[in-house]
Design a protein that fits this description.
Elements: H1 2-6, H2 9-73, H3 77-82, H4 94-111, E1 115-122, E2 125-128, H5 144-151, E3 158-165, E4 174-181, E5 192-198, H6 199-210, E6 216-221, H7 231-234, H8 242-247, E7 252-259, E8 262-270, E9 277-284, H9 285-288, H10 290-321, H11 323-336, H12 351-409, H13 413-431, E10 437-439, H14 440-457, E11 462-468, E12 477-479, H15 483-494, E13 502-511, E14 515-522, H16 541-554, E15 559-565, E16 569-576
Parallel strand pairs: 11-13
Antiparallel strand pairs: 1-2, 1-5, 3-4, 4-5, 6-9, 7-8, 8-9, 10-12, 13-14, 14-16, 15-16
Helix pairs in contact: 2-4, 2-6, 2-10, 12-13, 12-14, 12-16, 13-14, 14-15, 15-16
Protein name: Two-component system sensor histidine kinase YesM
Transmembrane segments: 297-317
Domain HAMP: 319-371
Length: 586
């Protein structure tokens, strides 16, 4: 189940589709095979029954022809004289009659080729074919055939005797004998005719006529004895089976028979020419369904082909059905990569498209909220920076006014006038009519006024120099009040333990492709310029203020670099990018 949970939605839909199709195909295949096997078995049983009927009809016809041929022979005058049915018969002329009967015997065999030999038994002597090798002095009355005839209680004897060794002729083949009375009247009794048929020839006739190619057939007497002796060895105990014993009492039917681990379908039919004989066809059921083996593989192959085609169709349909969801997934991935401009678009009008439309509206709302938050954050930062500037200005103003006061007390009116004018010009340039952007020239003038005022406040504390590269465009726009906080930081912190000898250098050069590099260097005490730990701001309130303003105005392209050697010098460099969509100009 864990593997199922790890599958993608496409895989789960594909698997569900395949499972449903597989169940349907499997059920259809099993049902088709079951129906086909049932129909095939019924057809095979019907074919077996039809084959048995044709076989019994052929056998009946052949036995009937043998009987008819014998009865026709009995109408011949030579035959009638030989057996004493004519007034002119002379029993003393035995050899004359025997010779006359040879042509009758030959004619009989021509009429019915299956008759192998013929014997006519009378109380006055035997008549047989001279062409056959007879067993000497073998009387019909001394054979088991005669014993069977005596057990019959019928007006006219007609007896079919199953496979046995011929007692009259020296022939090793198994024979079937037809025994009947030699005359059809009560006056001439104890005259018999025996017609012998080879079992092998009768089998050939049946096989040739029917074309039997599967299963076996058995011919049993009413007592359960095999007519063909060899049949008894094929299925030992067959005649003793209860179903067989019951079948021998009926005219026709079918039943199942088991032997040696095999189940057989048995059909049977009583012969009309030999009422005591019942013909059985014994067909293994595995043979009945032999053709179903090929059908099974055909159905299995068809099922596999259907599964393969269904898998391909399921893959295509799954891809087609999930195409809107795939598109929505791609849109969500781009949103995860902070691309809020992307939108979901689909020609479908399904539930996924409705979700996509709502997702688009959500993105619009997120963009609107982002703009509002960004504007609010920008306004907040501007307010914070203005508050920072408001905190710096009173400190500087306090020192300046205090200096002006003491200079006026000392009657240094010229210095007082110069400081007042410088302070006025400083405020004018710093306010810049309320605009954040000024020109580079005004920024230089602003820091110059500040340095002049500070030199008046801290006499002989420091000196300064401003170096501007000739390639620098002095009228280019720049964020106001960038240099003054850094200069103030040098005076208040770098020179706090000095009384004289301080020096501040301001350098302005072109950086990169049209950018600016503003550098403030002093020879003050310096500080540890190692990078601050996470969550801490760089040392100095002024540095923090300038860094914030640069990031807000110029983004990540702006830089603030600090290099300091304690007791030697401190260098602070601001990098302002060249390409900027200036909102204000000085």
């Amino acid at each position: 189940m864990g593997v199922f949970y790890k599958m993608s939605l496409r895989q789960r839909i594909w698997l569900a589709f395949i499972l449903i199709v597989s169940v349907v195909i499997l059920a259809t295949g099993v049902l088709a095979y079951h129906i086909a096997s049932g129909v095939s078995e019924q057809n095979a049983l019907r074919l077996s029954q039809d084959t048995l009927n044709k076989t019994s009809q052929a056998l009946d016809e052949k036995l009937r022809n043998i009987k008819t041929s014998v009865f026709s022979m009995m109408m011949n005058m030579d035959y009638r004289r030989a057996v004493g049915l004519e007034a002119s018969s002379d029993f003393q002329n035995y050899y004359t009659h025997l010779s006359a009967l040879q042509s009758v015997f030959v004619q009989l065999r021509l009429v019915e080729p299956l008759i192998d030999s013929i014997l006519v038994e009378t109380p006055d002597g035997q008549y047989y074919e001279n062409s056959q090798i007879a067993i000497p002095r073998q009387s019909f009355y001394a054979t088991p055939l005669y014993e069977q005839v005596k057990t019959l209680n019928a007006e006219h004897v007609e007896l079919w005797v199953g496979g046995h060794q011929d007692p009259f002729y020296n022939d090793p083949d198994e024979m079937i004998s037809f025994v009947t009375e030699g005359a059809m009247n009560q006056v001439s009794k104890n005259r018999y005719v025996v017609a012998n048929v080879k079992v092998s020839e009768l089998r050939k006739y049946i096989n040739r006529y029917i074309g039997w190619n599967q299963g076996r057939f058995m011919l049993l007497t009413a007592g359960g004895d095999p007519v063909f002796a060899e049949d008894g060895a094929q299925f030992p105990g067959f005649s003793r089976d209860e179903a067989v014993r019951e079948a021998l009492l009926r005219d026709a039917g079918n039943f199942d028979y088991s032997s040696g681990g095999e189940t057989y379908s048995v059909n049977y039919r009583r012969l009309d020419s030999a009422k005591d004989w019942v013909l059985f066809s014994v067909l293994p059921k595995s043979g009945l369904l032999e053709r179903l083996g090929n059908l099974k593989w055909v159905i299995l192959g068809f099922m596999l082909a259907c599964l393969l085609v269904s898998g391909l169709i399921a893959r295509f349909l799954t891809r087609l059905l999930l195409r809107p969801l795939t598109r929505l997934q791609a849109v969500i991935r781009r949103v995860e990569q902070s691309d809020l401009t992307v939108r979901f678009d689909s020609p479908y009008q399904d539930e996924i498209s409705q979700v996509g439309s709502r997702f688009n509206r959500m993105l619009d709302e997120i963009n609107r909220l982002f703009r509002e938050v960004k504007e609010a954050e920008t306004e907040k930062r501007r307010s914070e920076l203005k508050a920072m500037q408001a905190q710096i200005d009173p400190h500087f103003l306090y020192n300046t006014l205090n200096t002006i006061y003491w200079k006026s007390q000392l009657q240094e009116h010229e210095h007082v006038q110069h400081m007042v004018l410088s302070l006025s010009r400083l405020f004018q340039l710093g306010l810049n009519k309320g605009r954040e952007q000024t020109t580079l020239a005004n920024e230089i003038a602003h820091v110059t006024q500040y340095l002049d005022i500070q030199r008046q406040c801290y006499a002989s504390l420091f000196d300064y120099r401003i170096e501007v590269d000739e390639a620098v465009e002095r009228q280019r726009p720049i964020l106001k009040i960038l240099l003054q906080p850094l200069v103030e930081n040098s005076i208040l912190h770098g020179f706090r333990n000095r009384k004289d000898g301080g020096f501040i250098r301001i350098g302005i050069d072109v950086h990169g492709d049209g950018g600016l590099a503003l550098e403030v260097e002093d020879n003050g005490e310096g500080f540890d310029a190692a990078p601050p730990e996470e969550g801490q701001e760089p040392s100095g309130y002024a540095l923090h203020n300038v860094r914030k303003r640069l990031g807000l105005e110029y983004g990540d392209e702006a830089e603030l670099r600090v290099r300091s050697e304690p007791g030697v010098r401190t260098v602070i460099t601001m990098i302002i990018p060249a390409r900027r969509d200036w909102r204000e100009a000085g």
